[in-house]
Specification:
Layout: H1 2-31, H2 38-48, H3 54-86, H4 97-128, H5 133-141, E1 144-145, E2 151-152, H6 157-161, H7 163-187, H8 196-227
Antiparallel strand pairs: 1-2
Helix pairs in contact: 3-4, 3-7, 4-7, 7-8
């Protein structure tokens, strides 16, 4: 009976101790929406430690990175065009300095995404033409061989490889924050439901919240599924 009471009394403690762990998991998944995390580093570690198929996996990964950089550069150029066109709106003179600064920041980030994507693409194309592409790729990842016998890439490697995508995500985020700030700043002048500015800001916010929730759900689910071990 005492043992059962001890076991029964320890159950709530296990639940309470698991809450910080679950909170950390949720935070890590949200962080993966912007910055590549351990799941990307695990993929790189699998490639460089695959002795029998390392050459093949390395070329496949480099090819996918080139395709990703091309898509990122085109998307970033389109976002830069959207942000630039917003400065030609008829009421741009009435726009607050907060919105303008956010849009200019988004424009800078978009251009940085295009430039960094081009640099990454050139580096991967040059690397793919080398004879010892697998060894050069492992050297480019940095890191070292640890006590378990596995080569572990540097922890900053996923951040470096995901830099162009990170710039693109931040550019979109800056533009949207500035857009919603401008909408509610205009609605703040006449906070009545009869005003058109309030209706526009409210409907746009509802749609934006719906899009944000779908984006977080889809990306977090994709990241979660990509980190689960495959079934035999």
């Amino acid at each position: 009976m005492r043992d059962q009471e001890k076991l029964g009394g320890s159950m709530p403690r296990q639940k309470r101790s698991s809450i910080p762990h679950k909170t950390w998991i949720v935070f890590r998944r949200l962080l993966d929406l912007l910055v590549p995390g351990e799941w990307s580093r695990h993929t790189l570690q699998t490639i460089v430690n695959s002795d029998d198929r390392r050459e093949e996996l390395t070329k496949t990964y480099i090819g996918s990175e080139i395709d990703k950089m091309n898509t990122t550069s085109v998307t970033a150029a389109l976002i830069a065009g959207v942000i630039s066109s917003s400065f030609s709106w008829y009421n741009i003179d009435d726009t607050t300095w907060v919105t303008k600064s956010l849009w200019f920041s988004g424009l800078v980030l978009s251009i940085a995404s295009v430039a960094s994507s081009a640099i990454h693409t050139a580096a991967f194309l040059r690397m793919r033409c080398e004879k010892d592409v697998a060894e050069r790729f492992r050297q480019a990842l940095g890191g070292e061989r640890e006590s378990d016998g596995q080569w572990h890439p540097h922890r900053l490697t996923p951040y470096v490889l995901g830099g162009p995508t990170l710039h693109l995500k931040l550019a979109v985020l800056m533009f949207l924050i500035g857009l919603f700030y401008q909408l509610w700043n205009a609605a703040n002048a006449n906070l009545t439901w009869h005003g058109d500015d309030v209706k526009i800001a409210f409907i746009a916010t509802v749609v934006g919240a719906f899009v944000a929730l779908n984006y977080i759900f889809s990306i977090s689910t994709l990241v979660h599924q990509s980190t689960r071990p495959g079934k035999e």
